[in-house]
Design goal:
There is one protein chain. With 611 residues, the protein is α+β, with helices and mostly antiparallel strands. 36% of the residues lie in helices and 23% in strands. It has 16 helices and 20 strands. The strands form three sheets. It has a nine-stranded antiparallel beta sheet. Strands 5, 11, 14, 17, 18 and 19 form a six-stranded antiparallel beta sheet that branches. A hairpin with an 8-residue loop joins strand 3 and strand 4. Helix 7 runs parallel beside helix 15. The protein is elongated and about 105 Å long.
């Protein structure tokens, strides 16, 4: 067998093994959910386990729960209505706890419900943001507004980008608390909390913000290459902890009875919250402000908390103190998040998108993909355009590789002579082969290098297609209406020609009865491998024949966008290799190679038995 076929098989097998290792040896992380805790968190509408953040003046945190006011069954609500968000804000606690995303639906069906991001207490998977003050010095919890305090609406009836709302609460002892809530055209809330001291003595207290999540979400993707859970940036340090990580924090009694917490002091830049695959709710103190970032888990009620705590303020009689914190609650759109990073000054906010280990590739790959999509207006064609750009970038290396492969063909007669001369002496054969390669300046390993370079690009593009919302429900043409999902067509119903439905995605039948795109993938890979003659070794020839079809079934359940990339890559590689080899005096016998790959071996006649 010649070395160029050996290199091609080696590179292909190595690619397969790398993918197989990724998907077999690193299974999805299972998130353990305590059924008893889940029942507590979801079945009792009146149970709100949140306690105000602990103070730094020696107040017993455990007393916070006892000091909380009873929850009001039907507190009034303020409507939230922006071009991209709809929902309500509860006057109980001033909670932002009902929020839906107008631009996104649950499925590609235009009549499916819009995505619900935040949910109030009382329903399953309650998820909301709230703000308040914690007491210090001589103040008690009854002197400051808490999670269940009922505020009075004093300004604005509907929260819009042009109309903020103002809430007020008085403690009856000379302190008046005011909260102004603003929102922009996209997903950023700005909450300004103020306290005015009309009493005779100075008071000490500090503001906090919380994002609370009751129980582990039901809709977790639970896939090992995707981060879901706490995302936190603290003075340049990125932290990504899953819900099981948070529930496994060291027990911290000062944070509440049985609480487990991680507490980080932030000097000037930071944000934290909870992220899903495509959506996120994140607290963002004013850039430049110091604060304490806290991630907490309350095991008794199965509540996860992300908190920001500002430094303690001393408010003298007749003075007013204020604090501002932002809240991002919406879709993790690259352009929107990058805009907040640049215009608002939220440091490294783009890292809230899970770019993975290959971030040095995934970030620029997506940036280019997004730019091409802006020019073309279609993500499917943008993926093909990206493939062309990547192949052009790697063309100098591919050119050397294909030229080397063509020269290997020219050396074939001399290599056969060496084999005849040395016989079965494999060591002598290798020595003379290497001498021949050096004399003719041929690198036998050059043929596999371009294929190996495709592996990190493939994984990076897979990550981009899987995690970025811009690919979610993005159509290409015809039957491909969601590039982030597998090809919905299936051999099971002859790709729609027979009058029954295709198998459900992810089922065994869906893996066996593949769609049109995976079929094209297998054919394109098979044709690419036919540019070279079949190996003479029968085992290697079998691998050579079966590898495209193994890849076809293995990648058949991958996102359509990734399969489109692989098909385009195969077609471009085939074209490049054919033209380059032809220009260097070796025209690949494609038809002959195809015939030899399917030709049966002749039956060898048995020798007559000796008498």
């Amino acid at each position: 067998m010649d070395d160029q076929n050996k290199n091609l098989i080696l590179a292909t097998v190595l690619s397969f093994l790398v993918i197989l290792v990724w998907f077999v040896l690193f299974p999805p992380e299972e998130v353990a959910i305590d059924p008893a805790q889940q029942e507590i968190a979801q079945s009792d509408p009146a149970a709100d386990p949140l306690a105000p953040a602990p103070v730094r003046d020696g107040v017993d945190v455990a007393a916070a729960t006892e000091a909380m006011e009873p929850e009001v069954a039907e507190a009034a609500r303020i409507t939230i209505d922006t071009p991209r968000l709809s929902g309500t804000l509860s006057l109980q606690g001033g909670r932002i706890d009902d929020l839906a995303l107008k631009d996104y639906r649950e499925t590609i069906d235009p009549d499916s419900p819009i995505v619900q991001l935040l949910r109030p207490v009382g329903g399953r998977n309650a998820y909301y943001a709230l703000y308040g003050w914690s007491p210090g010095g001589t103040l008690g919890f009854e002197d400051v507004p808490g999670p269940n305090t009922v505020w009075t609406q004093v300004g604005g009836t509907t929260l819009t980008p042009d109309a903020p709302v103002t809430l007020e609460w008085q403690n009856g002892n000379g302190l008046t608390f005011t909260r102004v809530v603003e929102i922009d055209e996209d997903f950023l809330f700005t909450v300004t909390q103020s306290v005015t001291n009309a009493g005779d003595e100075a008071v000490r207290l500090y503001p906090y913000g919380q994002v609370a999540r009751h129980g582990v979400p039901d809709n977790l993707e639970n896939f090992f290459i995707l981060h879901e859970g706490l995302v936190m940036k603290t003075d340049g340090q990125l932290t990504e902890d899953s819900y099981s990580d948070i529930s496994g924090y060291v027990e911290t009694p000062q944070e509440g009875p049985g609480a487990r917490a991680e507490v980080i002091e932030v000097a000037s830049q930071g944000w934290l919250g909870f992220t899903d695959k495509y959506w996120m709710a994140t607290l963002i103190p004013t850039p430049g402000d110091s604060f304490t970032a806290v991630a907490r888990y309350l095991p008794g009620t199965d509540v996860f908390l992300a908190e920001t705590r500002k430094p303690v303020m001393t408010v003298a009689p007749g003075e007013t103190a204020s604090s501002t914190t932002m809240l991002f609650a919406g879709a993790k759109e690259w352009e929107t998040i990058r805009g907040y990073e640049r215009e608002v000054g939220i440091e490294k906010f783009i890292d809230s998108i899970d770019w993975g280990w290959f971030f040095f590739l995934t970030k620029p790959i997506f940036a280019v993909l997004h730019w091409i999509n802006g020019l073309i207006g279609n993500m499917g064609w943008a993926i093909i355009g990206l493939t062309l750009m990547l192949k052009a970038l790697l063309f100098p290396l591919a050119y050397k590789s294909y030229v080397s492969m063509a020269r290997m063909k020219e050396l074939q007669p001399e290599m056969e002579k060496i084999k005849e001369r040395v016989g079965d002496d494999r060591q002598k054969l290798q020595q003379e082969m290497m001498t021949l390669y050096r004399e003719k300046k041929v690198n036998p390993a050059a043929g596999c290098l371009p294929i190996l370079l495709q592996i990190p690009i493939f994984f990076s593009l897979y990550k981009v297609i899987f995690v970025t919302i811009e690919l979610r429900h993005a159509p290409w043409f015809g039957w491909i209406q969601d590039l982030s999902a597998p090809d919905p067509s299936s051999l099971y119903n002859l790709w729609g020609l027979l009058p029954w439905a295709a198998p459900e995605p992810g089922s065994i039948l869906a893996l066996i009865f593949i769609g049109i795109l995976p079929l094209f993938l297998g054919v394109s890979m098979w044709l690419q491998m036919r540019l070279n003659p079949m190996p003479t070794d029968p085992i290697q020839a079998t691998i050579f024949n079966w590898m495209p079809w193994i890849f076809m079934f293995m990648l058949g359940s991958f996102a359509s966008g990734l399969v489109i990339y692989w098909i385009a890559n195969n077609v471009i590689t085939f074209t490049q290799q054919y033209i380059i080899m032809w220009r260097h005096g070796h025209r690949p016998d494609l038809l002959g190679n195809i015939k030899s790959s399917v030709k049966r071996k002749p039956v060898t006649a048995k020798k007559p038995a000796e008498k």
